[in-house]
Design goal:
With 450 residues, the protein is mostly helical. It has one domain (6-443): SecY subunit domain (Preprotein translocase SecY subunit, Orthogonal Bundle), CATH 1.10.3370.10. Helices cover 69% and strands 5% of the residues. It has a three-stranded antiparallel sheet. It has a two-stranded antiparallel sheet with strand order 2-3.
């Protein structure tokens, strides 16, 4: 990563405004987490989750982790941003299978706006479905009768309306951050929820390490810190890793003169999909447990037992989803045919590979190879929490690979975007500095301004 003077950030007005807007919107999100839903008992929910295993911890603890602690608070944001992510997955998969949606994707900005609109409608529909399942099944899910204090039709409708409105607000918040702030708004909301829980997780782990009643001691704490450091180093290394395909540009005539041939490269990231696969996979893994309450308590218990985090069924399906979304998202982001056509259009070629279709096949082959490595890396990192909690009983979710991957990956993306703004500001300043002498000279010569 190139070095940049980050002390210049306050001196760049556009970047400063974007950062302030991003921080303000994240603050609004965190404040909303502590606004409880009417008709629900927050203290009973906190007591239930506090009595559960803080490691793998079951369905509700995992859901609370991904919702940034909003479920524990029985907040208006208790569903989190997961309905929006699930709707996005459905629309993206449908865009490959449904010809009408595939045509929309090719219509440019108009088609993209239409797909975004459909995603919002799908988010609201899923929020209603999941909110109803949560309101109706939370007492049975926790084995208590005082979490949802009023189970009348009017109270359930109010809870569902509140949860749906909270999800819609988070969806709007994420889109506003993406448009007017810095970074991907949805990813930043998820990261903010995880980071907000880190202080409490660190406190509990330190207390457990130095407690005589715990089997987790200081030596185990040092081993855990070493594992976390190794995971962070691996994430940073792989997220920055690239496969650079050499590209040569032939000599061509420009402005009546000849431009010499140039050597360049085509950078292909090892993990092109970033943190999208684990976020998508986690969202989909939560969905069956949420809606299974519609089919009775026995079916709900069976589904949640089978898909309990750490169980073999959960691990196999979760790993398969991560691998699938790693390839799927890479195919969406990169089209080898388009890349080959662009190279041919600008007179570029890969040495030893004929332009056109052979180049497209070669780029596709390279993408599949590096995506395989990226998918294996994502799967291993995301399975680490279950190995860690198996080795160190009681260790919190926050020290697992999924949380660290999201935090580190989103942070790297945020730094990259800040760097882009700084480069743009430097370029604008450089252009202005070059224009000023010419303007001054024209004014001294008495030329009229244009």
């Amino acid at each position: 990563m190139a070095h940049f003077d980050y002390k210049r950030i306050p001196k760049v007005p556009e970047l400063r405004k974007r950062l302030i807007f991003t921080v303000a919107m994240l603050a609004v999100y965190r404040i909303g987490v502590y606004i409880s839903i009417p008709g629900m008992n927050r203290d009973a929910m906190k007591a239930y989750l506090g009595s559960q295993d803080t490691g793998v911890g079951g369905f509700l603890n995992m859901f609370n982790f991904l919702a940034g602690g909003a479920l524990e608070q029985l907040s208006i944001f208790a569903l989190g941003i997961m309905p929006y992510i699930t709707a996005s997955i459905i629309l993206q998969v449908a865009g490959v299978l449904v010809p009408a949606l595939e045509r929309l994707k090719k219509e440019g900005d108009a088609g993209r706006k239409r797909i975004n609109q459909l995603t919002r409608y799908g988010t609201l529909l899923l929020a209603v479905v999941q909110g109803t399942a949560l309101a109706r099944g939370l007492n049975a899910l926790t084995g208590q009768d005082n979490v949802v204090t009023s189970t009348g039709a009017g109270s359930i409708a109010l809870i569902v309306l509140t949860l749906t409105a909270g999800t819609a607000f988070l969806m709007w918040l994420g889109e506003e951050i993406t448009a007017k702030g810095v970074g991907n708004g949805i990813s930043l909301l998820i990261m903010a929820g995880i980071v907000a829980g880190l202080p409490a997780a660190i406190r509990d782990t330190l207390r457990m390490a130095f407690s005589d009643a715990s089997t987790f001691g200081p030596v185990d704490l040092l081993i855990l810190v070493a594992i976390m450091a190794a995971i962070v180093a691996a994430i940073v290394y792989v997220e920055r890793a690239q496969r650079r395909l050499p590209v040569q540009y032939a000599r061509r005539a420009v402005g009546g003169g000849m431009v010499t041939s140039q050597n360049s490269h085509l950078p292909l990231k090892v993990n092109t999909s970033g943190v999208i696969p684990p976020i998508f996979a986690s969202s989909l893994m939560m969905f069956p447990g949420m809606v299974s309450g519609y089919f009775g308590p026995e079916f709900q218990e069976a589904v949640q037992t089978f898909l309990a985090p750490g169980k073999m069924g959960y691990l196999v399906i979760y790993s398969a989803m991560i691998i699938f979304f790693a390839f799927f998202y890479t195919d969406i982001m990169f089209n080898p045919v388009d890349m080959s056509d662009n190279l041919k259009k600008w007179g570029g070629f890969i040495p030893g590979v004929r332009p056109g279709e052979p180049t497209a096949k070669y780029i596709g082959w390279v993408l599949k190879r590096i995506t395989t490595g990226g998918a294996v890396y994502l799967t291993v990192v995301c399975l680490v929490p279950y190995w860690v909690t198996g080795a160190f009983q009681g260790v919190n979710f926050y020290f697992g690979g999924t949380g660290l991957l999201i935090v580190v990956g989103v942070s790297l993306d945020l730094v990259t975007q800040i760097q882009s703004h700084l480069i743009s500001a430097n370029y604008d300043q450089f252009s202005l500095d070059n224009e000023r002498p010419r303007l001054r000279a024209r004014l001294e010569e008495g030329e009229p301004q244009t």
